[in-house]
Amino acid sequence: MAHWSAMTDVAATSPPSIPERLLALQAVDTEADQLTVQRARHPLREAFATASAELAAWETLRGKLRARIDELTSAIERAEVEGADLTSHKVRLEAQLKTVIAPREAEALMHEIATIDEQRDALDLRELEALEEQSLRDDELSRHLLDEETIRESVRRSDQELSSAVTEIDRELVTLDERRSDLRAGLADTMLATYDRKRAALGVAAATLVGRQCQGCHLDLSAAEVDTVKEEAAATGVTDCPQCGRLLVV
C-alpha cells in the first residue's frame, strides 16, 4: 500500500480535503478492481483446471476399463452357461442315438449333434477371445491405477495453492473495503452519488488534471476549457471533465 504514504502524511497533519479523499477513494476502487480481476483470472486457476481435467480424463478411462471388464466377465459367464447347456443337449442326443434303429432318424440326430459341435466351437472361440481381452484390460487397469495418487496429489496441491492465493487476495480486498468505508464517510452523499454513477458508467470516476490533460481520458483540454474547469473547481477543487465527464480534480 505504498501509494497511500502521501495520504497518510497528509492525514497526520490535517484532515484530507475533498479532492484528496475523492482521489484516494478512486485509488482504492481501482486497486480493488484489479485484485478482483486477478482473483478471477489468477494463473493458478488454469493450473487447477488442467489438473482437474487430467483427473477427470483419468477417471473416465478407469470407468471405461472397469465397464469393459464387467462386460467381458458377463460374456464369459454366459458362454460357460451356454456351453454347459449345449453339452447337456449333446449328451441327450448321443444317448438317444444309441436307441435309434431307423437310418433317417439316426442321420437327423447325427446332423443335430454336428450342429451342436459347430456351435460349441464358435462359443469356445468367443469365450477364449473374451478371456484374452479381459486379461489385457485387467493389466491395462492395473497400470492405469498406478497413476491415481500422483494425479490426485496434483489436484490437491493445485487446489491448495489456488486457495492460498485467493485467500490472500480476499484479505487485501477486506482491507481495501475498510479503507473505502473510511473515505466514503468523509464525502457528502451528493458527491458519492455522482461518483458511484460515473464509476458504474466509466469504471474510473475521478481523475486529476495535469497540465491540460485529463488523466482519466488522457485527452487535452483547450485553453478555454482549462479556464472553465478551474473556475468551476474554485470552491471544491472538483468539477466535471468536459471531454469524458469524469470528476476532475483541478
Identify the notable features of this structure and list them briefly:
about 250 residues, mainly alpha, Helix Hairpins, 4-stranded mixed sheet, 7 helices, 4 strands, disordered N terminus
Quick structural overview:
This protein is mainly alpha-helical. The protein folds into 2 domains: 15-187, Helix Hairpins; 203-250, no CATH class. The protein has 7 helices and 4 strands; from the N terminus they run ααααααββαββ.
Cα shape: rod-shaped
How much helix, percentage-wise, in residues? over 70%
Strands ordered across the widest β-sheet: 2-1-4-3
Distance between the termini: 24 Å
> What is the chain-wise order of helices and strands?
HHHHHHEEHEE
Q: Main sheet?
A: 4 strands, mixed
Structural class of the helices, strands and pairings?
A: mainly alpha
Can you tell me the number of structural domains? 2
Q: Which value, in Å, is the CA radius of gyration?
A: 41 Å
* H/I helix tally: 7
What is the annotated CATH architecture of the largest domain?
Orthogonal Bundle
> What is the highest CATH level, the class of the largest domain?
Mainly Alpha
Q: What is CATH's topology name of the largest domain? A: Helix Hairpins
Strand residues, percent: 5-15%
